[in-house]
Amino acid sequence: MHKKTRNPYVDHNTAPLDTKLHAAAQRAIDHYLFPTNKNDGAPAERPSNNLFLVSPNIDTETLLANASENLASAAEMATTLAFNLDESQRAIALGIQQLIELSALLVDRAQEQVAPATSTATA
Q: Tell me, what's a Pfam family for it (predicted)?
């Protein structure tokens, strides 16, 4: 049986696709795992013991807004959990929920001090 199509042209002077993909993957890994400072190209300083990091470039208002949302979610979870527990454990879960609510009030107050809400009085 004979082939009806010719073999495709292969340029032996170019790197194989696997090599190009490997190089691109290595650049992506280096970019995310070993970032450099934009100004001097030196490796950026990274804390070694932290699993989760907060970007130092985020403004205080954004940090407080996210903390407030996280506390609201935690309060909702604690309240939902409390109603699925027996009497003694429910009191503990509701105590945790109250601590979350108090923390949320502190965060909200700090947020008001950082970025006061501009309210217009309507008559």
A: DUF6124
Task: Please give the backbone phi and psi of residue 43, each rounded to the nearest 5 degrees, phi first.
Answer: -60, 135
In terms of Cα–Cα distance, which of 81, 79, 71 is closest to 97? 79
End-to-end CA distance of the chain: 92
Q: What is the DSSP letter of 59?
A: -
DSSP structure class, residue 56: T
The single residue listed with the structure tokens 């790197």 is 15
Residues 6+ apart with CB under 8 A from 85: 93
Q: Which residues of 72-99 are buried (b: 16+ CB within 10 A; e: fewer)?
A: eebbeebeeebeeeeeeeeeebbebbee
Instruction: Scan for tokens 């280096």, then name that residue.
Output: 30
- pLDDT grade, residue 42 (50/70/90)? low
- Range of lowest pLDDT (29-43, 72-86, 87-101): 29-43
Question: Which of 5, 25, 115 is CA-nearest to residue 64?
Answer: 115
Is a pLDDT exceeding 60 seen at residue 100? yes
- What pLDDT score was predicted for residue 22? 75
